[in-house]
Design brief:
Length: about 140
């Protein structure tokens, strides 16, 4: 099955820069977290460290704790995941390379949702490929 090899050897569509922009905006603006919850989940992130950071931000948010660099680093440290995601310096760098306007971040989140593709190799059946739905929930864009 040459088609199986072709898909297995390819890297799924991704945008590490978009992931960083989303995470940074979530750390800088609570409104960005509200939009992220509507549009994304942990599986939306290609980079494992970014998925872990996202889930930790959502965990803090759900507990009504402040979401910022300090609380995120502390929460990651308490769960022994800080080194796994790149340490405090990486968390800090995320916020410095992020656009903050919410409309920008909503547009970037849409890009992430469209580019996520799952590839499942089913034994004796070949490959099933499907894209995550981009109409999972209606998008509400704030007026500015």
């Amino acid at each position: 099955m040459p088609i199986v090899k072709e898909f297995v050897n390819k890297v799924p569509p991704q945008s590490i820069e978009a992931e960083i922009a989303v995470l940074g905006s979530m750390l800088l603006d609570k409104e960005a977290i509200d939009h992220a919850i509507e549009l994304l989940d942990e599986a939306s992130f290609y980079k494992t460290a970014h998925a872990k950071i996202y889930s930790t931000v959502i965990k803090l948010y759900d507990k009504n704790k402040a979401v910022d660099i300090v609380t995120l680093v502390e929460e990651l440290r308490n769960s022994s995941a800080l080194d796994e995601v790149g340490g405090p310096a990486y968390i800090t760098s995320i916020t410095s390379s992020s656009p903050t306007p919410v409309l920008t971040i909503v547009a970037i989140m849409r890009i992430l949702r469209v580019t996520i593709v799952s590839i499942n190799i089913v034994p004796n059946s070949g490959v099933r490929i499907f894209a995550k739905s981009i109409t999972r929930r209606p998008l509400s864009v704030p007026a500015q």
